[in-house]
Amino acid sequence: MTIMNTSLTSATISNRRGLLQTMASSIVLLGSGLLWQPTAFSAEDAVRIPAPATDLPAAGQSPQRAIFAGGCFWGVQGVFQHVKGVQRAVSGYSGGAASNASYELVSRGNTGHAESVEVTFDPSQVSYGELLQIFFSVVHDPTQLNRQGPDTGTQYRSAIFATSPEQLKTAQAYVAQLDAARLYPKPIVTRLEGKASFYPAELYHQDFMTENPRHPYIIFNDLPKVNNLKRLFPNRYRSDPVLTKKAHP
C-alpha cells in the first residue's frame, strides 16, 4: 500500500492508487457489516490447493515463528490473525538491515526489505504446512513478481523467510509440489529467503484491518481474503482475530 506519511489520518490513508472511484460501486453496506460484490477490479482470486505432502511434526513443540511476505502487510496480518492456532501476527520488515527498517525508507523500494508478517503459532493446533497452504491459497497471489495487486516494488514481493532449516526444506518441497501440480495460471515466483530478519513496523500499521474495516483499500483488497479463508478453510478460521496491540500494549 502507498500512504503519504506516517501520521494515521484520513488524508494519510486515502490515496490508494486511484482505486477509490472504481471500487465505490462494488461495496454494499448492510447494517454495520460489509458485503463484497466482485467486479473486474476485485482482489486476487483464491486458489484451492492441496495440503503439503511434507509437513513439520506438531506434537510436543513450543510456540514457533514463521515469517511471510505477500504484498501489503495489512492484509497478510489480517488473514493470519483469523487463523486458529496463531497466537500473534505482527506487521514488519524483513530482508534488509535494522538501520533502515522504517516505512518511509522501505517504501522507496531500495532497502532490500519486504513488508512482512511474523506469525507466532502453536504447532499442536496449526502446522507450519497449514500456514503455508493458507499463504499460497488465500493470503496472496504467488505468481505476481515484485508486486501484489495495486502495490508495486520489491518491498511487496512474495517471499518466505524461513526461521529454521526445517522450515526452508518444507517450503521448498511445497513450492515444488505446487509447481508440478500446475494449479496457477503462471509460475510461482515466491522467493525462499534463509535470512529470517524481522523488524516490527510502526504501531499505526498494527491491527490495521481490524481497526479500519471500512477503509476502501481494506474493503477492496483484504476483506475478500478473510472471506476466502472462512470459505476454503472453515476448520482453520476463527471469527475473533488475535490482536497485536491487545496482547502487547
Describe what you observe in this structure.
The structure is a single chain. With 249 residues, the chain is of the alpha+beta class. The protein is built from eight helices and ten strands. The chain has helices at residues 20-24, 73-80, 103-106, 128-139, 165-181, 208-211, 216-232, 244-247, and strands spanning 27-30, 33-36, 64-70, 86-94, 114-121, 147-148, 151-152, 158-161, 191-193, 199-200. The strands form three sheets. The chain has a six-stranded mixed beta sheet with strand order 9-8-3-5-4-10, with helices on one face. Strands 1-2 form a two-stranded antiparallel sheet. It has a two-stranded antiparallel ribbon with strand order 6-7. Strand 6 (147-148) and strand 7 form a beta hairpin. The longest helix has 17 residues, at 165-181. It is globular and about 40 Å long. The two termini are 25 Å apart. Mean pLDDT is 85; it is low at 4-42.
How would you briefly describe this protein structure?
With 249 residues, this protein is an alpha+beta fold.
Low-confidence stretches: 4-42
User: What profile does the largest beta sheet have?
Assistant: 6 strands, mixed
Strands across the major sheet, in which order? 9-8-3-5-4-10
**SS field, number of helical segments:** 8
Provide the structure class.
alpha+beta
What are the defining features of this structure?
single chain, six-stranded mixed beta sheet, two-stranded antiparallel ribbon, 8 helices, globular
